[in-house]
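Posting for a labmate who doesn't have an account.
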Amino acid sequence: MNPSTPETPLHDFANCHVGILSKLDRVSGLPALLEAAARARSTAQEALDFFRHAVFEHHSEEEEQLFPVVAASASAGEERARVVALAERLTSEHRDLEGRWKQLEPGLKAVAKGKDTTLDVLALGQFAALYTAHARFEEAEYLPLAHRILSRQSNHMDALALALHVRHAPQVVGYI
């Protein structure tokens, strides 16, 4: 329509099209948003499952199997004191990380269910950074030392392997 022509009822129809076309433009982006929402739900559920089962189990294995075996195999004195101090630090970090994860779980559960949530993205970013630092520290400091200690006597490494195997073996309930 020409802006110099006087307004007529036809202007109302033309103006309605502006709103309709604007909404159509937004709704055309809906498939991409649905795909992103589905990825968010899936990612949140996978993280919940993984941390509840694999990561917490990993912490437990380190604390109940690895740390005691390495401490028992370490030479008395400075080496054992270092191993124990490192294990105490790592265990303390496990508790901190597990506590932080439990704070994140409600928001992640809501995301996994496709519900509106106020997921604390700052806390999630901090958790990821802290866990990364924890894993890197353990890999750089504790695990190489544990390897040196347990490698001195192959039966110590074998005992750890057996303990972990037994821990993961399927439990037989009853007999036929």
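Reply:
Got it, the structure tokens are right above this. Residues 13-168 form one domain.
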